[in-house]
Design the sequence.
């Protein structure tokens, strides 16, 4: 029956064509085999020539995911604050961090899931090309490992739980809150592979990135162990991880004093929540009230222009903090535009990892040296090691040097601090909680925590 | 312009030479067409000679003249909507003339009317088991566009207006929504050629000049539209343009002038209050309100007083038709210019403007008796400009939204000098905007659209014998649409907006081409003396192609530069291509029994490029039965029924997915690293069309010598294999939902129409018209997929698709009510769980989130101090006590109604008096739907930066903030806040309202001048019409307009666009229009 229909259709179309030709028109306008020139069908990706394009796509999609997830994170901390029209930014600002129905965390989750899947897909593709000897530029694989590591590290940083095992239409169960630490191991493994490959290829760019990021991920893993299982302020919040310090030291040997590895979206790859646009165009959010002086003539929607807009002061000079001023100029004023990058590792972060390790080990001289190295990179006068006290100096240095880099909420929790806008009854004010598996996932995945809406069940 | 020039020149040339085409073997038939009883002359009646192409249209005085009639005995027939058809024999003298007058009998039923849509060939209505409605433009109204022509005319056909923005067309719905993911627009044909009926800022349907429309045939669903196959499950609209008729050239000129105004009572003034004496003194000066005190609420009507004006519109039309026995022609040209009712010209260059040029030429040739050729050519040029950002739909950045959300207490000229209320010498915030940009800055932003469109068709009808007809039609519709929006360099004249202040420019161009090929053969013959047969078979193929390019950039380098390429940041370019082919071959047999019973069976086999070249097609069958008992010779009019027809129809139709929806794709994603690819679409190789199966039954009955006609239909539709945008776990790596044929919708409806000629005297005729339709649509299955939130990215939008509930249901939080015994609240919900409520002495306030109703004592203690609702702390302390009435376990998703009206309809009358005067009135109503009043959710709530400026709310806030208020006054104010104004924080709470309305849609008063006066102007006839549109609105809805929706002219489908109805989101009220039209015929 089906074949007869196909034949009949073809005969009929031939008849139409004949008539149309007689009428002087072209027959091909009624040909039903239409190609799609707007996208690539998956079958075409089996060619090793696609390797660089896949690696680039992963890079772009990671930057896009960051533009979506860093806004909710930073608003939940005190770095950004809600000033606009949409109340769900306000809920995050007030400390309601674990609400899966929040439209901004809900919107960020798919982007993070997208890059999680794509990183695995791309690594698999490139490794198979490499194994077959068809990979033309092997550093593409190194770049892919770096991105895959960043993805796993960020998921572990930002989420209390996540789903890793799903593939296309096949759902999987969550990793489990207690097992999220394993994502840091996955990240570290990817960075390790990137490092080995970069060393073998003599590529210092990827080697530096991988070393810096592995230092960061090892630091983060130690921090996770200290903070997350208990969800309370740890008695000793300082991190001193030997592996992290070793990587940081090695990385510093490769990094200039102002080195930073930054992922910046373009207007072609910004996510739905693009936090730069939310700040600098739509004005839903603004740099936090402890960081900037808002402009009352603009309904406090933006910081005052210039240095007058900087509220947070450098504890050594007691002047508006110039490091912060630079960061605010870069992210949070209208001139910053709609695409703001996120620094994923930097020389100053390496110094801070080492400074904190030294402080934890009570090596104040080393700590002072590391802090002053970070300050010197910005041309700031040296800190005397005493005023402010080392712990406060560490917290401040992390606050301004790692501004909008996804560290502040962790620091608030572990140092027992509270954001200025948190309500005492909010989740963040009571427990060290991060983002949950979002509603969009719960709704479509029966293996995800159910029921999909029941706030009390979150952040246990 | 070239197409216009060619077609117009051709038509005019023919107009000049055609009268010479007469020969001596022909004669002239002439006479008058009048109304039986009253003797009133009837204009617009079709008079034609059976079996020939010779015809004419009666003039305003009822006269007609057909030259070129064959010199022999012929049968002359006449038809006019609202009257029974009549045929008379006459012998035409060679080279002479004969008079033949017709007196037509009024008839409210039109069973003899000939229709062509859905039947494959011209057929009388009474032979079809399904409904085919015919819409004609009322002669005494001013119809500016096709959207207005179709709305409020037929039961089951609705025109959904986005908002009152100049140039914006309406979306059309027939019998509700047959799809949740695909377009629910009917497919539209013009003279048998499928057209682009989409839109941009303006509607492509409205490109067509309504004055060139002879009639519109409407097929209301799958049972009627089966022969149109895939794409027709939401019905078919076929527009027939006017054709020429034999005779000397007849010219018609008309000039129309209109005034357009927003209704002043639909937009509430902006309220505010001062918190200190100093602020009160300052505001007293600024707004000229002497003696203003702190916490005294004052109002400033910003929209009405500062930003509206009386808009104007002018329209000029010229038409000519005529011809001879072998050639007839019709040509028309229309120019329309409108400067809409948005004012504020002194604040900025943006405005609301519309300009349309519409031309059409129709040419019919009869080279041989057996062959008729026709050519149609049209050219349309549309220009539309609106202020502010956003080219489609309503925008929160638009001037109207910014006017509505301005808070007069924030107004100041602190960066320049105060001049007068709302006027600063330079930068300032003269209206008190709290977010996004100032009103003056919004009026610096220009958004425009320009459309060039050519359409055409060629058709041939070959009639080798009287029984066989072969029709071939080929047509095209090519649209080039260009859009741009532009904010000039440093348009931030108030130094307020931070949004791309160095300017931005975006452009877009879309080229759409629709090709149609249609060929069919019909064979009509008697099988026996009692049985007749009408067989038709044919093929139809459509090719739709669209190409779109776009570019945008920001940060223009300086003033005066207006090109995308100059921008320094956010540079973006885009290009996309889409082609889809679909078609089918069809056959239908209609058997008639003694001309009073008709059985029709048929079907269509469809193929489409969406499924690939080797995919099997889809077969859509149909069957219908029509019986006319009143045509029995033994019919004796039981119960006063003069005419009765019973009918039933069953049929299938479909909707196909998008051209490339089945593929697993990776999409380009550009970034710092360069060009890349990212997974995009999951793909589904098993994708197929969704199938609508519809059954309908009904009757037409005529009473009082058919002066009262009743038409009733009941229908039921099931959509199987419903294309659901299934959301798979996003953890699987794909963010987009994937279309899958897994759902099912059931819908049932009733349609009722009554048409009556209540009075028919010589000097007074009264005609009444009443229509009503009911639609009930239920989502029966999502195939196991989770419920779908129809606008997943916006938490404030509250329409979900949940199995078992009506389509378009709204789910919101609901406030606890008084406990059982003291209120209407039941004790337990369907799960047997207690429903939260409050006792005497308690309030529906969940103070500090403690989970129970707060007592008066607790709240009086809390309100010992003033409390500011703008602060997060107070908002969190004063939470509403919510209740789970549904037993869904989800407090935020309690069903309270749906966005689609249960009942829609219209009623009206036409009164003709003193022979020369005629008044027509038409009222439209809709009931049983709920509107999301998002505009006032901002205006009437605690929102910190925008709105929060309705008087009721401002009084609450002033009371709570006023140190002089007592705790009891604050408690009372808080109760009002929680019960009526706690909006946005729990999205949907107190934001939904019943949208029931009755609208005085149309009024027309026409004076037809006596012949003697017309002749003074050298004219055959002359008339003057005064008309009004959207004159009055009766509704309890408190927002700007219950009729508006969020989507603009977006017929393309998608879950979000399909469920944006009844969303009053920053949309302007629909304006009133008053028109004066002078019509001269020569």
Sequence:
């Amino acid at each position: 029956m089906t074949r007869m229909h196909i034949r009949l259709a073809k005969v009929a179309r031939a008849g139409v064509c004949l008539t149309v030709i007689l009428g002087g028109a072209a027959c091909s306008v009624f040909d039903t085999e239409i190609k799609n020139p707007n996208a690539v069908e998956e079958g075409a990706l089996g060619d090793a020539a696609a390797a660089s394009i896949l690696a680039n796509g992963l890079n772009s999609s990671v930057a896009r995911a960051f533009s979506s997830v860093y806004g909710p994170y930073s608003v939940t901390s005190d770095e950004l604050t809600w000033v606009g029209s949409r109340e769900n930014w306000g809920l995050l600002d007030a400390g309601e961090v674990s609400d899966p129905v929040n439209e901004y965390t809900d919107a960020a989750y798919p982007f993070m899931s997208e890059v999680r899947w794509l990183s695995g897909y791309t690594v698999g593709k490139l490794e198979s090309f490499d194994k077959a000897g068809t990979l033309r530029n092997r550093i593409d694989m190194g770049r892919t490992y770096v991105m895959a590591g960043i993805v796993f590290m960020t998921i572990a940083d930002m989420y209390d739980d996540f789903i890793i095992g799903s593939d296309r239409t096949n759902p999987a169960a969550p990793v489990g809150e207690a097992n999220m630490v394993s994502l840091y191991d996955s990240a570290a493994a990817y960075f390790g592979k990137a490092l080995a490959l970069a060393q073998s290829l003599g590529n210092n760019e990827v080697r530096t990135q991988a070393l810096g990021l592995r230092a960061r991920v090892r630091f983060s893993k130690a921090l996770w162990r200290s903070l997350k299982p208990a969800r309370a302020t740890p008695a000793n919040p300082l991190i001193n991880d030997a592996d992290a310090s070793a990587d940081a030291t090695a990385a510093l040997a490769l990094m200039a004093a102002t080195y930073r590895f930054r992922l910046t979206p373009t207007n072609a790859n910004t996510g739905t929540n693009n936090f730069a646009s939310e700040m600098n165009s739509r004005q839903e959010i603004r740099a936090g009230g402890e960081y900037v002086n808002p402009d009352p003539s603009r309904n406090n929607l933006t910081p005052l222009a210039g240095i007058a807009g900087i509220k947070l002061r450098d504890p050594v000079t007691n002047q508006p903090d110039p490091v912060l001023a630079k960061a605010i100029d870069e992210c949070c004023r209208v001139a910053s535009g709609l695409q703001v990058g996120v620094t994923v590792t930097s020389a100053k972060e390496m110094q801070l990892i080492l400074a904190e390790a030294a402080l934890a080990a009570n090596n104040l001289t080393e700590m002072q040296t590391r802090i002053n190295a970070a300050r010197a990179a910005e041309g700031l006068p040296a800190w005397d090691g005493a005023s402010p006290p080392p712990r406060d100096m560490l917290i401040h240095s992390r606050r301004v040097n790692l501004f909008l880099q996804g560290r502040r909420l962790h620091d608030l929790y572990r140092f027992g601090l509270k954001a200025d806008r948190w309500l005492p009854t909010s989740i963040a004010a009571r427990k060290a909680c991060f983002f949950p598996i979002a509603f969009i996932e719960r709704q479509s995945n029966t293996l995800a925590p159910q029921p999909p809406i029941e706030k009390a069940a979150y952040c246990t | 312009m070239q197409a216009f020039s060619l077609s117009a020149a051709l038509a005019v040339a023919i107009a000049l030479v055609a009268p010479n085409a007469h020969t001596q073997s022909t004669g002239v038939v002439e006479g008058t067409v009048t109304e039986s009883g009253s003797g009133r002359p009837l204009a617009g009646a079709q008079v034609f000679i059976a079996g020939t192409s010779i015809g004419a249209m009666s003039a305003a005085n009822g006269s007609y003249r057909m030259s070129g009639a064959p010199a022999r005995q012929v049968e002359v027939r006449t038809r006019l909507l609202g009257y029974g058809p009549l045929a008379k024999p006459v012998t035409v003298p060679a080279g002479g003339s004969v008079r033949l007058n017709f007196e037509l009998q009024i008839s409210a039923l039109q069973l003899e009317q000939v229709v062509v849509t859905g039947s494959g060939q011209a057929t009388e209505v009474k032979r079809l088991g399904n409904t085919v409605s015919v819409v004609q433009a009322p002669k005494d109204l001013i119809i500016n566009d096709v959207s207005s022509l179709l709305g409020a005319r037929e039961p089951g056909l609705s025109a959904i207006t986005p908002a009152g923005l100049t140039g914006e067309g309406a979306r059309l719905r027939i019998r509700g929504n047959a799809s949740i993911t695909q377009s629910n627009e009917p497919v539209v044909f013009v003279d048998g050629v499928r057209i682009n009926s989409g839109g941009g800022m303006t509607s492509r349907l409205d490109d067509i000049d309504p004055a060139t429309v002879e009639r519109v045939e409407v097929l209301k669903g799958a049972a009627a539209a089966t022969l149109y196959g895939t794409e027709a499950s939401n019905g078919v609209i076929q527009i027939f343009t006017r054709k020429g008729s034999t005779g000397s050239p007849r010219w018609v000129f008309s000039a129309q002038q209109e005034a357009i105004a927003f209704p002043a009572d639909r937009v509430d003034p902006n309220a505010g209050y001062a918190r200190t004496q100093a602020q009160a003194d300052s505001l007293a000066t600024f707004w000229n309100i002497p003696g203003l005190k702190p916490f005294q609420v004052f109002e400033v009507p910003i929209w009405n007083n500062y930003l509206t004006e009386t808009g104007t519109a002018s329209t000029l039309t010229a038409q000519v038709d005529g011809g001879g026995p072998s050639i007839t022609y019709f040509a028309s040209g229309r120019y329309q210019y409108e400067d809409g009712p948005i004012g504020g010209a002194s604040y900025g260059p943006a405005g609301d403007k519309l300009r349309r040029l519409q031309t059409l030429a129709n040419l019919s040739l009869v080279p041989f008796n057996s062959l008729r050729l026709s050519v149609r050519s049209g050219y349309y040029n549309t220009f539309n400009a609106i202020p502010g950002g956003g080219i489609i739909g309503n925008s929160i950045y638009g001037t109207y939204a910014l006017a509505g959300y301005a808070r007069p207490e924030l107004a100041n000229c602190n960066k320049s000098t105060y001049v007068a209320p709302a006027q600063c010498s330079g930068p300032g915030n003269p209206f008190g905007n709290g977010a996004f940009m100032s009103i003056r800055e919004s009026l610096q932003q220009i958004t425009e659209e320009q459309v060039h469109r050519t359409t055409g068709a060629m058709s041939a009808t070959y009639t080798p014998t009287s029984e066989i007809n072969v029709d071939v039609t080929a047509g095209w519709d090519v649209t080039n649409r260009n859009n741009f929006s532009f904010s000039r360099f440093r348009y931030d004249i108030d130094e307020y907006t931070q949004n791309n202040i160095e300017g931005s420019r975006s452009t877009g161009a879309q080229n759409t081409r629709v090709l149609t090929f249609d060929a069919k053969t019909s064979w009509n013959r008697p099988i026996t003396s009692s049985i007749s047969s009408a067989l038709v078979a044919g093929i139809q193929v459509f090719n739709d192609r669209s190409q779109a390019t776009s570019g945008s950039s920001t940060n223009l380098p300086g003033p005066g530069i207006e090109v995308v390429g100059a921008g320094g940041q956010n540079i973006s370019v885009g290009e996309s291509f889409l082609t889809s082919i679909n078609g089918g071959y069809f056959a239908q047999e209609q058997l008639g029994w003694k001309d009073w019973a008709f059985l029709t069976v048929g079907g269509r086999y469809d193929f489409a490029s969406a499924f690939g070249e080797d995919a099997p097609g889809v077969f859509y069958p149909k069957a219908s039965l029509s019986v006319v008992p009143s045509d029995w010779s033994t019919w004796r009019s039981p119960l006063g029924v003069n005419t009765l027809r019973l009918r039933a129809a069953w049929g299938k139709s479909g909707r196909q997915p998008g051209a490339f929806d089945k593929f697993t794709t990776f999409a380009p994603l550009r970034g710092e690293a360069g060009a890349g690819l990212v997974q995009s679409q999951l793909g589904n190789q098993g994708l197929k069309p969704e199938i609508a199966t519809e059954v309908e039954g009904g009757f037409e009955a005529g009473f009082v010598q058919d002066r009262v006609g009743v038409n009733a239909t009941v229908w039921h539709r099931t959509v199987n294999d419903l294309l659901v945008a299934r959301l798979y776990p996003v953890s699987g790596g794909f963010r987009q939902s994937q279309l899958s044929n897994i759902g099912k919708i059931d819908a049932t409806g009733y349609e009722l129409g009554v048409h009556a000629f209540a009075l028919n005297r010589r000097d007074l005729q009264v005609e009444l018209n009443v229509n009503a339709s009911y639609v009930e649509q239920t989502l029966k299955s999502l195939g196991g997929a989770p419920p779908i939130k129809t606008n997943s990215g916006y938490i404030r939008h509250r329409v979900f698709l949940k199995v078992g509930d009506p389509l378009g249901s709204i789910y919101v939080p609901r406030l606890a009510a008084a406990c059982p015994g003291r209120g209407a609240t039941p004790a337990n919900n369907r799960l047997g769980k207690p429903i939260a409520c409050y006792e005497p002495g308690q309030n529906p306030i969940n103070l500090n989130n403690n989970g129970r109703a707060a007592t008066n004592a607790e709240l009086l203690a809390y309100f010992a101090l003033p409390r500011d609702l703008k602060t997060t702390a107070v908002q969190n302390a004063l939470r509403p006590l919510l209740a789970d009435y549904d037993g869904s376990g989800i407090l935020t998703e309690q069903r309270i109604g749906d966005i689609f009206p249960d009942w829609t309809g219209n009623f009206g009358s036409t009164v003709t008096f003193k022979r020369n005067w005629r008044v027509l009135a038409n009222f439209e109503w809709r009931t049983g739907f709920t509107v999301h009043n998002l505009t006032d959710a901002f205006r009437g709530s605690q929102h910190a930066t925008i709105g929060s400026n309705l008087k009721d709310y401002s009084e609450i806030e002033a009371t709570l903030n006023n140190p002089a208020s007592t705790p009891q006054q604050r408690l009372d104010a808080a109760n009002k806040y929680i019960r009526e104004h706690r909006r946005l924080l729990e999205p949907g709470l107190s934001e939904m309202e019943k949208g029931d309305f009755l609208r005085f849609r149309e009024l027309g008063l026409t004076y037809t001048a006596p012949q003697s006066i017309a002749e003074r102007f050298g004219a055959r006839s002359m008339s003057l019409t005064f008309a009004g549109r959207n004159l009055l609105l009766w509704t309890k809805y408190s927002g700007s307009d219950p009729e508006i929706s969020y989507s603009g002219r977006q017929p393309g489908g998608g879950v979000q666009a399909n469920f944006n109805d009844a969303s009053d989101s920053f949309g302007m009220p629909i304006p009133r229009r008053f028109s004066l039209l002078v019509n001269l015929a020569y």
